[in-house]
Amino acid sequence: MAINKRLGRRDFLRLAAMTAVGAVAASCAQPTPQVVEKPVTVVVEKPVEKVVKETVVVEKPVEKVVKETVIVEKEVVPPSQLREAPMLAELVAAGKLPPVQERLPLKPKVSNEMPPSQLAFQVGRYGGTIRTLTSSANWDTDIFVMCNEPLINTPGILGEEITGNICDSFEVNAAQTEFTFHLREGLKWSDGEPVTTEDVMFAYEDVMMNTELTARPPTWLRSGNKGTGTPYKVTAKDDYTFTVTFDQPYGGFLLVVAISGWRSYVELLKPAHYLKKFHTKYASKAEIDAAIKEANVEGWPQLFALKDVTNWEMTYPPALGFPSLYPWILKETSQQGQIYERNPYYFKVDTAGNQLPYVDYLDSAYVADTEVIQMKILAGETDFSRSHPKFVKLPLYKENEAKGGYKTAMLQFHATSIDLFLNLTHPDPVWREVVRNPDFRRALNFALDRDEIIDAVLYGYASLPDFNPPEYNVDKANKLLDSIGMDKRSADGYRLGPDGQVFEIPFETGVQRVDMVPTLELVVQFWEKVGIRTTMKTIDGSLWTQRSAANELKATIYWLEALWYQGGLGINLWAPLWDQWWNSGGAEGEEPPQDVKDVLAVRASINTLPPSEGIKAYAKMKAMVADQLYFYVPVEKVLQPLIFNARLGNVSESPDAIAIGVNFSAEQFYYKS
Question: Domain limits at 316?
Answer without folding.
Answer: 1-40+77-101+117-149+310-413+642-673
